[in-house]
Amino acid sequence: MELLHRSFFARDPVTCARELIGYELVWNQCAGIVVETEAYTATNDEACHTFFRRSAREFIAAHRAGDAYVYLNYGMYWLLNVLVKGGAEAGFVLLRALEPVRGIKLMKQRRAPQRAPDRLESLCSGPGKLTIALGIDGRDHGRDLCSGAHVGFRVSSAKVQVAAGPRIGITRAAELRWRFTKNGSAFVSGVRQPPQQTAYAQSR
DNA sequence: TCTTAGATGTGA
DNA sequence: CACATCTAAGAT
Predict the structure, then answer these.
(1) CATH code of the domain made up of A6-202
(2) DSSP states of A131-173 as a string?
């Protein structure tokens, strides 16, 4: 498995979040194309954990670029981030949606307790959904995503169009257009208001 | 098609 | 006590 190199995450978080669209997230037997991300920067971003949480700042100091930052949200959903550091600014990329490509049966089994609809488009269409589908939880916090044999981002040769829009589900700094989606994808979250911003080509 | 409530754990 | 969520249920 040819994984995305750690140097990919040694740039600024906004660039990483945008360019991660189209790569494949592999998690043991399951895999999906990354179709939605959000960027959070360690400084000047009130929505980032680093703004209020000492533990987040300590995590950045103690870990390497490409390590997983996993935390529990609303008391019930694990959210997967990738640590970005080494560029102009450190921060995180939140994985928000996947287009399932492998291990679909297993992912559906994991999501079944939620009584989730059987539609493939809604299997991983949200940050809490995709962690359930992939079996990600707090034990993955701090995990190296760039050198393991079973987990990481697989290099893709596909060319994708990426759209940018405001981050969703947050209250502070909501005006920043740091949410990125694969243009026109039916697998993104927030179907009520799909991003209709200017799209641009992204070469691989 | 939209808005609402309720489940639920943790860091500060 | 605020939260980077999700679903079912009820109103429109």
Answers:
(1) 3.10.300.10
(2) HHHHT--GGGTT-BSSS-SSEEEEP----EEEEEE---S-STT
